[in-house]
Amino acid sequence: MSGGQAKEPTLGEELKALEDIVRRLESDGIDLDEALRLFEEGVARLRRARERLGEAEQSVKAVLESADGTLRMQDVDL
Amino acid sequence: MTLSLPFGPEPGADGPEEVWSVAELNKAAKSMVDAGFVPMWVRGEVTGFRAYQSGHWYFDLKDETAKVRCTMWKSAAQRCPERPVDGAEVFVLGKPSIWEEKGEFSFGVQKLLLTNRVGQQQQELERVKAALARDGLFDAARKRTLPAFPATIAVVTSPDGAALRDIVRVARQRWPAVRLLLVPTRVQGAEAGPELVRALQLVNELDCDCCIVGRGGGSKEDLAVFNDELVCRALAKVRVPTIAAVGHETDVSLADFVADVRAATPSMAAQLALPDRAEVSGTAASLAERLSGGLSRHTRVVGERLARTGDRLESAMFEVLTAHRHALERLGAQLDALSPLRVLERGYAIPVATDGALLRGRAAFTPGRRFDLRLADGVVRARVEEGS
User: Fold this and answer.
1) pTM higher than 0.90, yes or no?
2) Which of A2, A30, A56 sits opposite B177 (nearest CB)?
3) How close B149 comes to chain A (CA, Å)?
């Protein structure tokens, strides 16, 4: 199926990483350079997360099995 | 014989002057029986069944060694889909009581099930339940948690049923980006079992994050396939977390307990499977706020430090400048004191040649030489009268 492609982080992973970044940013003991680096990474992750959130293309496909056992997808109209 | 009963007069020891009436006896017995039982299922064979014009049913229930009179009032009898015939084996739900007027012990039936249909199903259900329990399929330890953000959900249900429509509708509201893969199968009737098993096996060949299996509401018989042993075992073998959603809230199937999560309805299954976009947007917004807050916290610290350093620099500069100014003022005063003009003010004069050179010593004053005599308030032209 669609395996094999390089996996982008999922929204969940993105938010989790963002949460970690924010926690570190909210802690003491990091210098300004590190804070700026974290902030930049956080902004990038936030942007990607928001893109994901904005995605709205729902698809419903039916999985059909042929007589020879192969699977094919077919759009479902609802 | 003495009996200690919590009712009626104390039994007299000496004779019939303290005697119970029959009504008292029956009343006391009825109270005891009424208080002593909760509704219970009794299994037995129907004999002497009579249905009266009034709608009430009367029959005896017996087994190998005993018999009890049963009454089933019209309201209960009406709910029973089928009249039992003599010899039928039934389950009855109810409570025993005593009919005071006749002193008759009888069982008041609220519900009656024929065992030849329901009984067999019930027995099969118990058998499957025991087998699945023995193999650990209901164990809490094997329950997996659902993924927080599933990209793809396999939906094992009928393509024509309400369940699919409900799931799609809820998904559209909550998380429009999700990809739904319908694995179509019949969900009732003789073919449903094997089809469901195959569909659940197919789920393992799909790239999906979790699986919803279920159907909309129906009769007990309609939902029976979700108690099928092979269906339950196939469900347990699905490699992604599973949600069972069979019928309505009150319907319970074995598949519900085999799945990782039980949802009351298919709509509820979609709600459990999918995050709410509005909620997640809120989370992202609060993270964004904390992100900028976190950064400005650091820049503020640095800024404050910078400001403090600046202040110190400024005050250091100020001190240096002040010191220099004071030194300058002192030097100025000294210079001022040493200035030749000051000397002239005290009455001295300076002889200067016409070319401006200072005339020092007698030798410079040759007779007849013109020179200027510089005084505090001006210059006087002078000439040497005679040499020394």
Assistant:
1) no
2) A56
3) 6
* CATH fold group of domain B135-277: Rossmann fold (3.40.50)
For A73, the 3-state DSSP assignment is strand
Predicted confidence at residue A4, as pLDDT, reads 43
Give how far Cα B151 sits from Cα of A76, B188, B275, B345, B356, Å.
Answer: 18, 29, 11, 102, 102
Whether B256 contacts B262, CB under 8 Å: yes
Query: Is the pLDDT assigned to residue B283 strictly greater than 80?
Result: yes
A vs B, Cβ pairs < 8 A, gives: 112
Q: Where do the domains of chain B lie? A: 22-115, 135-277, 349-383
| pLDDT tens digits, one per residue of B198-256 | 999 999 999 999 999 999 988 877 888 999 999 999 999 999 999 999 988 788 899 99
Inter-chain contact B295–A55, Cβ cutoff 8 Å?
no
CA distances from B95 to B49, B68, B78, B107, B337 (A): 19, 12, 18, 6, 130
Measured between CB atoms, which of A21, A52, A62 is closest to B182? A62
pLDDT at residue B118 is higher than 60:
no
Show residues of chain B in contact with A64, CB under 8 Å: 184
CB contact under 8 A, A56 and B181: no
Instruction: Tell whether A65 lies on the interface with B, counting CB pairs under 8 A.
Output: yes
Instruction: Nearest by CB to A65, from B202, B281, B292: name it.
Output: B202
Computed on alpha carbons and rounded to an integer, the radius of gyration of chain A in Å comes to 20
Report yes or no: A47 at the B interface, CB cutoff 8 Å.
Answer: no
Q: In sequence order, which residues have a C-beta less than 8 Å from that of residue A3 and are 6 or more positions away?
A: B207
B125 contact partners, CB below 8 Å, separation of at least 6: B227, B254
Residues of chain B neighbouring A78 (CB-CB closer than 8 A): 164-165, 168
- Name the residue of chain A whose CA is nearest to B161's CA: A78
Find chain B residues with C-beta within 8 A of A61's C-beta.
179-182
Judged by DSSP in three states, B334 sits in: helix
User: What's the Rg (C-alpha) of chain B?
Assistant: 56
Q: Where are the domains of chain A?
A: 11-75
More confident residue, B268 or B6: B268
- What is the complex's ipTM, to 2 decimals? 0.74
CATH number, domain B22-115, options 2.60.370.10, 2.40.50.140, 3.30.9.10, 2.30.42.10: 2.40.50.140
